[in-house]
Amino acid sequence: QVQVVESGGGSVQAGGSLRLSCVTSGFSLCNYDIEWYRQAPGKEREFVSGIDSDGRISYEASVKGRFTLSQDNAKNKVYLQMNSLKPEDTAMYYCKRVGCFGMANWGQGTQVTVSS
Question: What is the band of 101 on the pLDDT scale with cuts at 50, 70, 90?
Fold first, then answer.
C-alpha cells in the first residue's frame, strides 16, 4: 500500500523560508512521478512543482526562482525548498505520487502560512 506523508509546514513572515518534505513508501511496478500541489481557502488545488521518473523538474510560474525541488532517492524523499515566501503562498501543501496508469496517491497535507 502506497503511503505519502508531508512535513515541514509552519508559519513564517514574508521573505522567510520553509522546507517541505514528502516521504513515500510502498511498492510500485512502475517508475513514478512526485508532485507538489497547494490549495488556499476558497481556491482550487493548483500544481506547484514536480519531478518525473526521468528526473525532470517543473515549476508553476509564480514560484519559479523562489522554490527548489530536490530528491533523495535513498530515502524516498522529495524536498521543496521555499524561499522569499509571500502571503499569497499561504495554503495547504499536498504531495502526490503518480504511479502505474496514472494512479495517484495523496498525502494529508501540511499547512504553510505566510504573514505580511
Answer: confident
